[in-house]
Amino acid sequence: MKRENVRGEAKLLNGEERRRRIIEERPLALGVTWALDSCADVTRSGRRVEGGWPGTVPEARMRVLGALTRELAAQGFAPLSQSELSAATSSVYDRARREWQLAGKARVSKVSSVGARAAK
Predict the structure, then answer these.
(1) Stretch 45-68: mean pLDDT, rounded?
(2) Does the pLDDT value for residue 43 go beyond 80?
(3) The three-state (H, E, C) secondary structure of the chain, written as one string
């Protein structure tokens, strides 16, 4: 009887750990994907990746709700609580903004190094 309880508790902790990892790690990947998609959209339209991040917090929330709700449900986990939704939304938005800024800086570095070589 004791062994069954220990196994059941370990399984529960394993499930809780898996859920926590999804909620912490998936938003980072969503933010990167969002930034890459945004950079591609801007480039396709003939503009440069520069200036402030064009995304919004409500867009980030919709991405979290769409992806994490589906993923948690598929694995049989409870939906996001309000505090988990807020934290995940902030993670997605912050990561996307950071990736956007890095993409803009990478472009500036490329242009600067090309200009320096052309000047020589």
Answers:
(1) 95
(2) yes
(3) CHHHHHHHHHHHHHHHHHHHHHHHHHHHHHHHHHHHHHHHHHHHCCCCCCCCCCCCHHHHHHHHHHHHHHHHHHCCCCCCCHHHHHHHHHHHHHHHHHHHHHHHHHHHHHHHHHHHHHHC
